[in-house]
Design brief:
Blueprint (H helix, E strand, L loop, with lengths): L1 H13 L12 H8 L9 H16 L269 H5 L24
Helix pairs in contact: 1-3
Length: about 350
């Protein structure tokens, strides 16, 4: 009786929610969610009734037995909600730590500022969900659908997002330090000032992604696709970009010091003013790339394709260009070299660098 009364109270007080079609949160909903609930954990029976009423509401918003699930700020720690349909539910600020939402339908769910650390969300459907400032530390989102979701400023440290879909997701200023995103799809995603330090993005799709000022220090980006991506002022110090695809990528003023770019595809990439000191570019394709005023001090470009490269104002002090292909004397004349620069056969040093870093 107590559980039933509590659940009825929960449903009545928290949802003014059966009225109308699924839409933006009502004023009443916002007011109710602004109030801080008790830290007492919601019982299984009460939760089951909330879920049942929500299911009814999803099927028919006009059914008086239906109620939208309003679980904002609830203590649902360790809850097993695998496979449930919580479409349009409000879980803002809820504590869902160490729970299971595997294969759950969480489309358009409000999870902003919720705590999902250590929670399993593998194969969950989070299309269009709001996860702004959500704590997902160590969570599993393998093969999750996060297309068009908002994860701005979220804590995604050490999260497993392998093979997840994040197409056009908003990850601005999110923290993905040491996250695992192998084979994930981030096409068109917004990653402005996002921390991806030490993250693993092996074979990830970042075509057209916006990574301006993103931090990718020490990240594993092998075979990743950055076609047409914007990486202006991004930090890629020590990043592993072997066999990565950066065709027509925009890397103005990017910091690629000591980056590994062996056999990387950089054709038509824009690298003006980029810092490539001590970068490894063996057998890379830099054909028609723009390296105007780039710093390649100590870089290794052995057997690199440099056909049509713009080297105007570039610094090649101490760089090794032995065996490079397509470089002409006219191109080289636009750059500066020093006594330690190794040039391909047939080319002569003309402009000596005033000083090298």
């Amino acid at each position: 009786m107590i559980v039933a009364a509590f659940a009825a109270c929960l449903l009545d007080a928290r949802t003014v929610l059966a009225q109308g079609a699924p839409s933006a949160s009502s004023t009443e909903e916002q007011v109710l969610c602004a109030a801080k609930y008790s830290d007492r954990q919601l019982g299984k029976d009460a939760l089951a009734q909330v879920l049942s009423a929500h299911d009814t509401w999803l099927k028919n918003p006009d059914d008086p037995k239906g109620r939208k699930a309003l679980l904002c700020k609830e203590n649902l720690r360790g809850a097993v909600l695998a496979g449930v349909d919580l479409t349009w539910a409000n879980l803002a600020g809820a504590d869902l730590r160490m729970g299971s939402l595997r294969q759950a339908n969480l489309r358009q769910v409000d999870l902003h500022e919720a705590n999902l650390s250590g929670t399993s969300l593998s194969r969950a459907r989070l299309y269009g969900a709001d996860l702004t400032e959500t704590n997902l530390y160590g969570a599993s989102l393998v093969k999750a659908d996060l297309r068009h979701s908002t994860l701005a400023r979220a804590n995604l440290r050490r999260v497993d997002l392998s093979r997840a879909s994040l197409v056009e997701a908003d990850l601005r200023e999110a923290d993905l330090d040491d996250a695992y995103l192998a084979e994930s799809n981030l096409e068109g995603a917004k990653l402005y000032r996002t921390n991806l330090g030490q993250a693993n993005l092996h074979r990830a799709n970042l075509a057209g992604a916006y990574l301006v000022k993103a931090d990718l220090r020490g990240a594993v980006l092998t075979e990743a696709d950055f076609t047409g991506a914007d990486l202006a002022e991004a930090v890629l110090v020590g990043a592993d970009l072997r066999n990565a695809i950066l065709h027509r990528a925009y890397l103005r003023e990017a910091d690629l010091q000591e980056a590994k770019l062996y056999q990387a595809a950089l054709a038509e990439a824009f690298l003006a003013n980029a810092d490539l000191r001590r970068a490894r570019l063996e057998e890379a394709d830099l054909s028609a790339a723009n390296l105007r005023a780039a710093d390649l001090t100590g870089a290794v470009l052995v057997a690199t394709d440099l056909a049509g490269v713009n080297l105007s104002g570039a610094v090649l002090a101490g760089a090794d260009l032995s065996g490079s292909r397509g470089l002409t004397q006219a191109q080289l004349n636009g750059a500066c070299v020093n006594e330690h620069t190794v040039l391909p056969e047939g080319l002569q040093p003309v402009n000596l660098c005033a000083r090298s870093r």
